[in-house]
Structures are given as structure tokens and as C-alpha cells.
Amino acid sequence: MNPAHDQVRAIVWCEDALELLDQRQLPGALVYQRLTTAAEVAQAIGDMVVRGAPAIGITAAYGVVLAARARYAESAPNWQALIATDLAMLAAARPTAVNLFWALRRMARVIAAGCSHPAQRLLAEARAIHVEDIAANQRMGELGAALLTERGSVLTHCNTGSLATGGYGTALGVIRYGYAAGLIERVYADETRPWLQGARLTAWELVQDGIPVTLLADAAAAALMRQGEVRWAMVGADRIAANGDVANKIGTYHLAVAARYHGVRLMVVAPITTVDMSIASGADIPIEQRAAEELLTLGGQPIAAAGAQVWNPSFDVTPAALVDALVTDRGVVLAPDAVKMARLMAGTT
Ligand code: MRU
């Protein structure tokens, strides 16, 4: 890995508090919020101070550390019972990214095991989750870049970089690795309405790293593909069902349909922690609906006709049949389906 191509850390544990880079203020200002309670952490996840499936999971894990410290101080004999409320509050912060629930389950196992210094033990677990995520991203970067058979440009959607993960990124990790290996010439980044994760965050990360980036309106993606400018569309995932269906940022499905029509291949890059084998297909993935204001206003200013109704799903589901390659830290699955997903999860790919 070229360390120059990975400069940002959005989640930092610092002197008994959690510091989150406030992604709502990027790229205008680089401001870290200092959080000291689980309630603040849950609020920060819901308000998108931190976002991106793996980053949400890591943040929640650190939130459990803050909760344990407070509950143990409140009542050392009862802290395990008291902390259940905090776990439930953190779990309710956002519904789609399964990494949140995965991380909370892992922390809950440590809580159930019990120990005399729970905050320290839980901090070690949260740190392990964080470090493992960065390692998974680096592994996926290598595996995904190995699928790039010729030098060219790629298209990406939303933000899947260091800001969305523990560091390095999922799809953006493949892009970082591919660029360092000379396999990627340019990155086309969808602006990603309505939160503009592409325009504000992906473009910012790529500019920081000196990787050439061209922004486009989401609606321009099909026209770009028609021009033959890109060979791969690369995206992350918030939850992958047992049959390989992929929930990701709204607009991914439309990108996948356009990609198949134009012969552009779709690569989904996600750690194993994003796979939810308890969900048979994408139809059962809970899709977060967000506030109407996200579409009715921009930068606090009204931009829509007063009285218009809003449909604002934050994610959509891309059927597995439209996915050419699923890159995980456990291996690559070409044309995923239920049988291949079961093999991947059993470690027999
Ligand atoms: O609403 P967001 O910004 O949390 O959505 C993020 C995405 O959809 C990402 O593509 C996904 O979490 C994968 S990030 C590694």
C-alpha cells in the first residue's frame, strides 16, 4: 500500500473520549466533535456526523465503551443490566447498515463475559474492531485491484473511503490500490444527492490523495458510460443479503442497471461484516427513510416548491444478478448468488 494514498482518519479515540470528524462540515471545515456519552454517539450516528456502514459500526463500539464507563460508575454490581438500554439506543441510531448491529453484538458478547475493568476490556475490543476493519480494507484493495485487467477510469457512488470506514476504504480502497498500481487513470464520482457524499467527501479524499477525480451529477452516469469512459463502476454496501442482493446508497441500483446495459462491470466491495446471512433477499433489508428537508432544502435554503411531498429512501437494493464481482476481505465472488454466498461465509470459496 502507498501510505500517501490514505491520509484521513474520521474516528479517533483520544484520552477517554471519542473524537469524530464532523462529515457534515466537509469539505469546508475540518472539525472534530468530542463525545463522552453513548447518547451523544447515537445522536452523532443519526445526524450523520459519522456515516458509512463500517464507520457506523466502529463508532457504536466506542459508544459502548463510554456507556460501560458510565454504567459501572453508576452501579458496579448492576452495570451489565443497565447497559442494555445503551445498546438498544445505539442500535436504533440507523437501520440499514448491518455493521452497526454486528459491532454491537460483538461488544455484547464481551459484556456478557464480564470482567473487573469493563471499560478497559471493551476499549480493547472496540480498538480491535477498528484495526481489523482497516486491515480488511487493505486486503480488499489488493483483491479488487487484481480484477482490473487494463488501465482505465472508474466510476464510483457515495463515499466509501477512509471517512466511511476505519480507514483506507472499501470501493475507494480498491481505487487507492489500483491507482497506486498504475491501473486507474481517473475516478468519476457521482455527486450523490441529497447528502452529496460524492461531491463533498469522495472528491475531497481523492484530492487530498492526489488522485484525479471528475465529479458528475448522478443523472449523468449513464451518458458517461455510453461514451465508453469507464470499464468498472465500484461501490460499497450497507447490507448484503444471503442471496447476494446489495443494499447501498440510493442511486446504486440505477447505476447497476445502466452499467449492465452499457457493458460496464459492477464491483461491490464490502467486508464480511456487511453480509447478513439472516436476511434471505434484499426485499427484507430495512431501508432507512430520511427527513423531507434533505430534498426540500440545500444548505438550509428552500429549493423545492412549497407543498411538494417527498420520498427520500437513503438506500436502494441492487439485485445480485446485476453484480459482476463482490470483493470481500475473505475473497472475491464473481456473479454472486445464494450458493456462492453460503460458500463464502463457510470459508470454502
Ligand atoms: O448514508 P451513508 O452516507 O451512511 O451511506 C453510505 C453508503 O451507502 C456507503 O456506500 C456504504 O456505507 C459503504 S461505505 C464503505
Automatic annotation (TrEMBL):
GO biological process, one term: L-methionine salvage from methylthioadenosine
UniProt enzyme class: isomerase
GO molecular function, one term: S-methyl-5-thioribose-1-phosphate isomerase activity
Catalytic activity reported: 5-deoxy-alpha-D-ribose 1-phosphate = 5-deoxy-D-ribulose 1-phosphate; 5-(methylsulfanyl)-alpha-D-ribose 1-phosphate = 5-(methylsulfanyl)-D-ribulose 1-phosphate
InterPro entries with a match to the protein in the record: IF-2B-related, IF-M1Pi, IF_2B-like_C, Initiation_fac_2B_a/b/d, M1Pi_N, NagB/RpiA_transferase-like
Protein name: Methylthioribose-1-phosphate isomerase
Pathway entry: Amino-acid biosynthesis; L-methionine biosynthesis via salvage pathway; L-methionine from S-methyl-5-thio-alpha-D-ribose 1-phosphate: step 1/6
Site (Transition state stabilizer): C158
Keyword ATP-binding: no
Organism: Candidatus Contendobacter odensis Run_B_J11
Coiled coil feature spans: none
SUPFAM superfamilies in alphabetical order: NagB/RpiA/CoA transferase-like
